[in-house]
């Protein structure tokens, strides 16, 4: 049940009736007619922009449309008033029964309340994390992992067929550097003193990898030239790092459906097939690019290269896919990887990148547009940097990693649930200061505590009712007389509950899971406010030992809050708290 959708349908029915009567002209497009919560709750329960968006195409004054529409809407039993405001906005108030019906629906559907078929089973690929397999995941990867995983769950919630995917960047030179670094740890395991030159990875996390390599091959590579051991150690080290990365992701509750290796693109014809697809469309040519902006002529040498005509699909400049020496550019395998996604039949692609990939957005979108002939949209979400603070100071380095704070550092400090929720309390394209002390603080200023405490408070009230001998099982609450919920504070909670299905669809449509975290905080605030009113107003106390029927109704309301909080936290990958310690 989506009450906002239901009332919008009512608005559309009234508009169609006005067309049939001749009040409105025929041929109007109602697609932009919306019904939403008013910015100021004092103005009503819902507002519609119908008169404002139809005035120009109808060649009428918006207020005239609004007044005629208000008359029709007021005839519906659910609408207690329809008031025209300003130039033509229309504010609606609904009867109490409408909000009580929402609560009944939540109790019947449980955590499925708010689910929809908006996605229509369409296949969507969400690629996230995709860190180089050269070490443990750092705090920046943590944000991308949390964001991507929550987004995938959100899309699943509204009916998409979601594949979570990790692209293993194991085809570039950084994997050779990893192999050389592991070789040094291998020599160290044999008792040799080694020095980590610039460019190698000095983190302690490679110590057990070097020891494992020794256990596997003994001294076979000691004193041997690089060409003897490079490929073997590269494969061994990559596998070891991916095992470490999988463990890191598991500690955060992230599980991928597919790991795709960049290396699998080379020597298999996949890159060639992707570029042939573009060539067949007339988008590959030999040419010379203009010098990059800011470069002086003597800093740049014009070279003929194989170019992708990405400007035909919205890019600023055409992009090289093959260098003048015949080697592929970094962009070529990325094109091939997305070509593979398109060929796998996905209806929509989402890439979650770090902030340093901002310059890659237009070229990648151009490539997917060209490969799919505009049929497969690609949305790229950039996650801005995270700064960690502890004891008032920036927390900068992990000894184990050598140069950065790891995902495990964060999870070990505050736990996976707190980590996930906190990282979703900002929009992904905004920088985030993560205060580890604040994340564990038990106060309203800590959003994860505030939401979890709301659920724990409800669970505590349910236990209290049971101790008083009042039944609060699901069947009893589903049969509660919800007409007893007639106080403005109680109805305010019901109205916030009613917003959940609408909020979920907006969050999914915009690929913005942080909206769920924001909503849960607002819902928790309504619950806490109602609870505190009960301290001075006995009629609002959740548990009233002298009236089982009143307690049933109030606990039914509280239960709906717990249900929606649990559903929302489920999308975010957070376990609802049953009690707070």
UniProtKB/TrEMBL annotation:
Alphabetized UniProt keyword annotations:
Aminoacyl-tRNA synthetase, ATP-binding, Cytoplasm, Ligase, Nucleotide-binding, Protein biosynthesis
Asked if the Swiss-Prot or TrEMBL record annotates the protein with the keyword Aminoacyl-tRNA synthetase, the reply is: yes
Q: Which domain of life is it from?
A: Bacteria
Looking at the record, the residues that make up the DALR anticodon binding domain are 451-580
The cross-references to Pfam families, in alphabetical order and at most eight, read:
Arg_tRNA_synt_N, DALR_1, tRNA-synt_1d
| Subcellular localization(s) per the UniProt record | Cytoplasm
GO terms, biological process: arginyl-tRNA aminoacylation
Q: Where is this motif: 'HIGH' region?
A: 131-141
**Residues annotated as domain Arginyl tRNA synthetase N-terminal:** 5-94
**EC number, UniProt record:** 6.1.1.19
List the GO molecular function terms.
Answer: arginine-tRNA ligase activity; ATP binding
Which catalytic reaction applies to this protein?
tRNA(Arg) + L-arginine + ATP = L-arginyl-tRNA(Arg) + AMP + diphosphate
GO CC: one term? cytoplasm
What is the annotated quaternary arrangement, including any partners?
Monomer.
Homology family: Belongs to the class-I aminoacyl-tRNA synthetase family.
Q: Which NCBIfam families match?
A: argS (TIGR00456)
This chain's protein is named Arginine--tRNA ligase
Q: Which organism is it from?
A: Phaeobacter italicus
Q: Which gene encodes it?
A: argS
């Amino acid at each position: 049940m989506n009450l906002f959708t239901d009332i919008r349908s009512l608005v559309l029915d009234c508009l169609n009736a006005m067309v049939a009567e001749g009040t409105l002209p025929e041929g109007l497009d109602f697609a932009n007619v919306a019904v939403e919560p008013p910015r100021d709750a004092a103005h009503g329960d819902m507002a519609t922009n119908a008169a404002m968006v139809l005035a120009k195409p109808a060649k009428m004054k918006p207020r005239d449309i609004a007044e005629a529409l208000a008359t029709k809407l007021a005839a519906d039993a659910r609408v207690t008033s329809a008031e025209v405001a300003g130039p033509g906005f229309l504010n609606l108030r609904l009867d109490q029964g409408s909000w009580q019906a929402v609560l009944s629906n939540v109790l019947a559907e449980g955590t499925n309340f708010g689910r929809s078929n908006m996605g229509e089973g369409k296949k969507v690929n969400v690629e996230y994390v995709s860190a180089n397999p050269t070490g443990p995941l750092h705090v920046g990867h943590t944000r991308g992992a949390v964001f991507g995983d929550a987004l995938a769950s959100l899309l699943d919630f509204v009916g998409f067929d979601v594949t979570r995917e990790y692209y293993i960047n194991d085809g570039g030179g950084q994997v050779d550097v990893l192999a050389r670094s592991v070789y040094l740890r291998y020599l160290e395991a044999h008792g040799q003193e080694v020095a980590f030159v610039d460019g190698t990875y000095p983190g302690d996390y490679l110590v057990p990898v070097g020891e494992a390599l020794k256990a596997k091959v003994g001294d076979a590579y000691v004193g041997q030239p690089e060409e003897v051991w490079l490929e073997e150690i590269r494969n061994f080290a990559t596998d070891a790092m991916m095992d470490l990365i999988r463990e890191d992701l598991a500690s955060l509750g992230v599980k991928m459906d597919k790991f795709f290796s960049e290396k699998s693109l080379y020597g298999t014809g996949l890159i060639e097939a992707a570029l042939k697809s573009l060539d067949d469309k007339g988008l590959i040519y030999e040419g010379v690019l203009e010098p990059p902006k800011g470069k002086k002529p003597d800093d740049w040498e014009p070279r003929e290269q194989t170019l992708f005509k990405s400007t035909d699909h919205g890019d600023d400049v055409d992009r090289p896919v093959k260098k003048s020496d015949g080697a592929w550019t970094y962009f070529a395998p990325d094109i091939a990887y997305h070509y593979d996604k398109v060929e796998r039949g996905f209806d929509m692609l989402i890439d979650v990148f770090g902030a340093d990939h901002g310059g890659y957005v237009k070229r990648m979108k151009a490539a997917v547009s060209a490969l799919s002939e505009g049929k497969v949209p690609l949305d790229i979400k950039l996650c801005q940097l995270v700064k960690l603070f502890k004891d008032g100071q920036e927390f900068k380095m992990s000894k184990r990693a050598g140069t950065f704070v790891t995902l495990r550092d964060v999870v070990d400090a505050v736990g996976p649930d707190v980590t996930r929720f906190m990282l979703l309390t900002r929009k992904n394209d905004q920088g985030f200061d993560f205060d580890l002390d604040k994340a564990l603080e038990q106060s309203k200023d800590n959003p994860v505590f505030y939401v979890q405490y709301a659920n724990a408070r409800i669970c505590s009230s349910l236990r209290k009712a049971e101790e008083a001998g009042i039944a609060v099982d699901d069947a009893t609450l589903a049969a509660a007389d919800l007409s007893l919920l007639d106080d403005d504070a109680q109805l305010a909670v019901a109205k916030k509950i009613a917003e959940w299905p609408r909020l979920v669809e907006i969050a999914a449509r915009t690929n913005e899971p942080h909206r769920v975290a924001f909503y849960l905080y607002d819902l928790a605030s309504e619950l806490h406010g109602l609870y505190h009113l009960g301290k001075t107003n006995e009629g609002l106390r959740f548990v009233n030992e002298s009236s089982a029927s009143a307690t049933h109704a109030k606990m039914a309301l509280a239960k709906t809050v717990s249900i929606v909080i649990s559903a929302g936290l489920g999308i975010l990958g957070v376990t609802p708290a049953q009690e707070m310690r």
